[in-house]
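S1.2 Input.
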Amino acid sequence: MIITSLLDTDLYKFSMMQVVLHQFPAAQVEYRYKCRTTGVDLRPYIDEIRAEVRALCQLRFAEDELHYLSGLRFIKSDFVDFLRLFHLPEKAIDIIESDDNGGISISVQGPWLHTILFEIPVLAIVNEVYFRNTSRFPDSEWEEGRKRLQSKMHLVLDDPDLDEFRLAEYGTRRRFSKAWHAEVVRVLKEQMGPHFAGTSNVWLAREHNVTPLGTMGHEYLQACQGLGPRLRDSQVFALETWAKEYRGDLGIALSDVYGMEAFLRDFDMYFCKLFDGARHDSGDPFTWGERMLEHYRKNRVDPRTKTLIFSDGLTFPLAIELAKRFAGRCKVSFGIGTNLTNDLGHQPLQVVMKMIRCNGQPVAKVSDAPEKTMCDDPAYLAYLRQVFDLPPP
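S1.3 Output.
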């Protein structure tokens, strides 16, 4: 089986899940899968995908895994007690053939608290099933992947101006395979030294004794559209609720659920001082970084005390260019995903699974990259744009 541990997911799923347990335990949600890659047909493998998901739903947290989670400074004991009873409910996920999305439709409906851990392993399953059925020469692909990985690492290791360069591995959801993912993390740890900050994958962080990294994802801010007092205040509500839960820990805010303009309007002096920094995940990263630094200065915050994390489709050359642009002006870090875990000489799948409803009402992400906007209700999307004073698509 592909997924053999419920820890084989990204850390921000656990940090968000803890907030859900304490703040929104009754929330009901719906997720929907989307494949953005053309020319893909997953229908021949649908039974294999279903079998993998069925096995995923049989997993429970082992005591040694719970002990590891309880050792993370921000994980609370009652959350660990809840996880001791947790399993993913098979009845909440539906996988059927479809005329689009690469030939399959995947939807998840149920309590947010019980369905939040579906997204990452399901996407990892879809990827691995697809590539193990379509890759003819896996040994040669691994050799090509190793060559590419070495070339990327030496772009950093051979540049004396990159002493402060820090990268994290963020590629669970679009990895070529679990085994290749583990290889990448092992090599990064062995060869990148202090340049390697850690991985978003909790299972691999534990296996390789590196730092698990992550704070919040888009679904958290989206869900607050259906949970907050009113729509216009949903972003502020989400950030304040996060601060209430973590009291200054896990202080990286996600900036692109409503676009940069709306984020800066809500990210006032209080949040500038309270949060450690922000994460970029769509739009031009250089423009975003310059605007964040100017925003900090306007709010009487020294940008050099804050961290900007870049994580939108990064390659090593782009990350290096960003590192040199912002060197000495702020702290910077880079989350590199697909370019690490699925760069073996073929086209990676662009697959996502996004929340589309919370408590019965539509929710949406209005990204700085139009192709990343995802909502199945055009009327709600138009209303959201109006409420947040967003430009037309």
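S1.4 Remarks. Residues 11-135+348-387 form a domain with the nicotinate phosphoribosyltransferase fold (CATH 3.20.140.10).
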